[in-house]
Write a structure and sequence with these properties.
Strands 1-2-4-3 form a four-stranded mixed beta sheet, covered by helices on one side. 20% of the residues are buried. It contains two helices and four strands. The chain starts with a strand and ends with a strand. It is α+β, with helices and mostly antiparallel strands. The chain has helices at 13-29, 45-55, and strands spanning 4-7, 34-38, 60-66, 69-77.
Length: 81
């Protein structure tokens, strides 16, 4: 079960980047281990942006597209130190 989620539907790339980074940081700070990022399928712009954010984020342990919903990415955050 994933603890928290953010829905990026309707966001442009820049706003989605800001909100996703805030969401990751807040979740980590609160000790949340697993999160869901809903980006939808659409043109793939948000999906690609989310992937870039996660790939380069030091707080992210692992992530993958939900095999049952390609419009959602499942993320495991590193343990809080």
């Amino acid at each position: 079960m994933y603890d928290r989620k953010i829905d990026l539907h309707g966001f442009d790339r820049d706003y989605a980047r800001i909100k996703t980074l805030e969401f990751i940081n807040d979740s980590y700070r609160e000790g949340v281990k697993t999160i869901r990022i809903i980006h939808g399928n659409g043109t793939g712009v948000l999906k690609k942006e989310v992937s870039e954010i996660l790939k380069n984020n030091k707080l992210v342990e692992k992530y993958s597209i939900n095999m049952f919903n390609a419009g959602e990415t499942l993320v495991t955050l590193k343990n809080k130190k």
